[in-house]
Amino acid sequence: MMANLRSAMQQRWLALSAREQRGLQVVGVLLLVWLAWQVLIAPAQNKLRQAESQRQIVAQQLTHMQALQAQAQALQQRTPMSRDSALRALQGVASPSGIQLNPQGERVVVTLKAVPAQVLSQWLAQARTQAQALPSEVHLTRSSTNAAASTPASTTSNQTSPAWDGSLVLVLPRGTQVGGS
Questions:
Q1: Which of 42, 60, 120, 125 is the most buried (most CB within 10 A)?
Q2: pLDDT at residue 150 above 60?
């Protein structure tokens, strides 16, 4: 069967004029070039196009990781504060409205009422860096509050932003206490 097909194709080829044969040869070469492009070159070219954006993403991730590493090393190298100085530092951190501190020995219970998420995040970062206080328990409920209540009058709008109600417990450092037992 294959021999018959080959023989029929050869007879058909010989029956074509030289111009038709040349035309089919050109079409065949163009088809092979297109196929080679689609299979071999186009995927590699797409990878090269994506490589620059991937490199930028990885570079940003590396920069972020290095910043986190530097921050962790700085936190490790700090000398522990005494409980009293940590408590004074925590009370010295600007407490936005809606945040109340209640010291209880080595811990501080923080009560939150409609504190915007961004404000809480910034306050916790300051509490960690300035007072070396770390959260140990968190009991929060997400609520919505009017964003106009926490923003200056020039930028107020009727948008709502996520806010938190609840409490969290911060553990103060256990450094040497001044005049303590």
A1: 120
A2: no
